[in-house]
Design a protein that fits this description.
With 208 residues, the protein is of the alpha+beta class. The protein has a single domain (34-207), classed as Lipocalin, CATH 2.40.128.20. Helix content is 29%, strand content 38%.
Length: 208
């Protein structure tokens, strides 16, 4: 009987601990102001609830960095992102963002809402987003840092947070390289491509 009781206690402890940890790891935090997003950021890691994106991301997305800067309107700001998918091409995209009721809203080039989650990384921001692509809405988890890369402990915490959300194994992005970094490297503006593309193209591209 004692063995049964001990086993039950251990099972209950094993089941309850992850729930408590996950409540802490996925806790939403208050956004102080849009100014806390300003500056240049390195995308350290990303995960989502879309099946198969981990392998695609490892193949296609090599480096990713972004710069967030203000607009003339007090409630708007912009995010300029550059990512490398081939040796000869870098791709850029600019998003217009709005901060309303502790949520970041994006309308272009895709419709998305983003909130901040708790992270122990001192110079990071951790976004949980709901992004609509075509007729579908997907969830993404992204961690950005002011440094070239995350520490092993920060990456481990991010993996645990993704697991708590039942997301895929995270894609770990290496330190960014400037684009273009040679005379042979070209930058392609993807904003016009998104405007002129079909919903299916947007879905396929963003899922990569």
């Amino acid at each position: 009987m004692l063995l049964i009781i001990l086993t039950a206690v251990l099972l209950l402890a094993g089941l309850s601990a992850p729930l408590t940890d996950c409540d802490t790891l996925t806790q939403q935090v208050q956004i102080q102001s849009r100014e806390q997003f300003f500056g240049t950021w390195t995308f350290g890691a990303e995960s989502s609830d879309i099946k198969g994106t981990h392998d695609l991301g490892k193949i296609f997305v090599r480096k990713l960095w972004g710069r967030v800067y203000p607009s003339n309107q007090s409630d708007h700001f912009y995010a300029f992102q550059v990512f490398r998918m081939t040796d000869t091409y870098c791709y850029s995209i600019t998003s217009k963002l709005t901060l309303v009721n502790n949520t970041v809203h994006m309308e272009h080039p895709l419709s998305a809402t983003e909130v901040l989650l708790k992270t122990s990384c001192p110079d990071c921001i951790l976004f949980l987003s709901n992004t609509t692509i075509g007729e579908h809405t997907y969830r993404f988890l992204q961690i950005l840092t002011k440094r070239p890369s995350l520490t092993s402990d920060e990456l481990e915490e991010f993996k645990q947070q993704a697991a708590c959300l039942n997301f895929n194994e995270p894609i770990i992005l290496g330190p960014p390289r400037s684009c273009p970094d040679s005379p042979d490297t070209k930058i392609v503006d993807f904003n016009m491509a998104f405007i002129q593309s079909t919903p299916r193209f947007k879905e396929i591209f963003y899922l990569i």
